[in-house]
Amino acid sequence: MNVKEMLKEHKLLAEFRYELGQIERGYTNRSLYVNLSEHRIESKPVTEMMKEKFIGGKGFGLWYLWNAVTSETKWNDPENEIIISSGPLGGITQYPGAGKSLVVTLSPLTGLVIDSNVGGYFGPLLKFSGWDALEIQGKADKDVIIFIDGNEGTVRIEETPLEATDSHILGEQLTEMYAESEEDKRNISVVTAGSAGDHTLIGLLNFTFYDVRRKAVRLKQAGRGGIGTVFRDKKIKALVVRFRGVKGDLNHPADISKINKAGIKLHKEINKFDAVQNRMRQIGTANIIEVMNEYDLLPVHNYKFGSHPDADKIASNVFVEKYITQGLPDGCWYGCSLSCAKAADKFEIKTGPYKGQLVTVDGPEYENAAGLGANCGIFDPEYILESNFYCDTYGIDTISFGTITAFVMECYESGIINKEITGGLALYFGNADAAMELLHQMARGEGFGKIAGQGIRRMKKLFIEQYGADPDFLQDIGMEQKGLEYSEYLPKESLAQQGGYGLTNKGPQHDEAWLIFMDMVNNQIPTFEDKAEALHYFPMFRTWFGLNGLCKLPWNDIIPESNATADEPAKIPEHVQNYVDIFNGVTGKNIDKEELILQSERVYNFQRVFNIRMGHGKREDDKIPYRSAGPVTVEEYESRQERYDRQLIELLNYNPEGKATEEKIKVLRKYREEQYEKLVDAVYKRRGWTNNGIPKLETLQKLGIDFPEVVEVVKPYL
């Protein structure tokens, strides 16, 4: 059946017509609210308070969600919302990396607010269609599509009985269905989940953009925290937006010359330095695979080790030379000359429902190569690409899948689980066939895949209760925190990065703080106070990208010449000033670099209070599994015995000679756990929080977010 016949079978459930309006200084000043339970669509005003306190993007998502749920709301309650917003800078075409959307919901994995950033065209096209945010609440009875036509000024909820579920097919079907011509396809963006969203808690969302050179629909992922699972629980098959007429001044900025000046400067830097710095235009984020391996930071065998002799088999040059299509401007939004959205074209699938088909695989990103590959002991580039493809089309978070599989493999090798429990899967490290079958089972909701798809936190509980596993051991090796699986960096030798993972609001994701090189390699933050300052500044600065619809890569993956003489080179001060300039250029405001950080502090502290409201967000929730801080097993210790013995001597004045490895592990552990607690103390103090991690009343007052309902949440703990 062709797509036009499928469209005829759609049942219109609701239609809303609106005046197109005009964006002013980055804002449409309204958001689109859709209630699927009631088939209700309406426009809501974006207030001056929202713009002042929450800016946009993630900030708008947090505010809308706060007002939609209570402390008792669960992720699968109809009251839970999915909010998508780009922010005031989203959609500009002059400065690289301005096509991001931020998605906010209550996470199935953590029970807390999760936010995830994603490229593709949806966020900017949503804004140009007249909406600063899309707020979806309720649940449909049957699968539906929400279609927004930004030129006609219509929004429709349509029942959709016939379309596919898996994202690479559904994205193509809906792009063709709603485009009026081949040329019009680039004006369409689709958001989908995939079949795994119906069966796992680690579902992701795919946001499409049409690649006019490949004549193919490409996918970018909002991956973390199970957002795709919420999407499918609401019976949403897809969101579709269509807008024709993208151009550089649609945000109607206050002073476009400021934006142009900053953009031209960065485009020149990218052209001059990318090939000799990070090679984003050649390989994307996978450029750091061999760098992580060299510095003992690549997670191997469930984060036991930081390097492996076979890592060269999945090094970036392997993907460049054999798989990734070169010479294409792979930007996921107009005007991004960094062009890091790489892809392997005509890749033949070897397993599963699409066996024998030639597909385009987006990536691999570093996280996918490290998590799907090295962390599971699988050093096979074709496995990495195939599992990357299936994670995307099924709608499975590649980071969670890689970390979950690595955990399962260690449990299997430790005898906690066996073939009887796994349904015959020999899940030892390096077994690509078993890992691939686990992935297919997750998507089908079958076998051991259904168990693994619930995430590490729930598996730990199951393994303890049903199989008699040692709870302390599972807590040590289960690489999750707050319920979210760790992203793919080994932080054992970086106390700051341990804090960068443990002290996040949403769980261990590196988009808040990636301090591992500053701390471990460059030794730029030696004291607790230095680390605490870094764990204040960088999470706040990175939060700002998520308020404004920006990608972080142009900030620090291109280093300008001025950085060689900068006072604080880790901050890339020239680029910080660029962001100040483009914000002022769009909005007409006059912020400086200090106000930029204050904007993020407001939202960051509000999210911390939101966590407290949901029953978490205190010191006990910021604990980390010990493997992220030090060696758990004898094998781990002895793999780096010279390093660890030397540390015992130099740091503790402890003589390791003749001591059993178990005794040395115990001594080192006590020291490292004490160091982490001292770091927590220092960070809380710097952030203006109590010793239990609660934002102080004076902190909320200073930031201007001491709303009565916010104060009510924190008062019992002060």
Automatic annotation (TrEMBL):
Keywords: 4Fe-4S, Iron, Iron-sulfur, Metal-binding, Oxidoreductase. Its cofactor is tungstopterin; [4Fe-4S] cluster. GO terms for molecular function: 4 iron, 4 sulfur cluster binding; electron transfer activity; metal ion binding; oxidoreductase activity, acting on the aldehyde or oxo group of donors, iron-sulfur protein as acceptor. Its EC number is 1.-.-.-. It is an enzyme of class 1 (oxidoreductase). Residues 27-245 form the Aldehyde ferredoxin oxidoreductase N-terminal domain. InterPro entries: Ald_Fedxn_OxRdtase_dom2, Ald_Fedxn_OxRdtase_dom3, Ald_Fedxn_OxRdtase_N, Ald_Fedxn_OxRdtase_N_sf, OxRdtase_Ald_Fedxn_C, Tungsten_al_ferr_oxy-like_C, W-dependent_AOR. Belongs to the AOR/FOR family. This is Putative oxidoreductase YdhV. It comes from Thermotalea metallivorans. The lineage of its organism: Bacteria, Bacillati, Bacillota, Clostridia, Peptostreptococcales. The gene is ydhV_3.
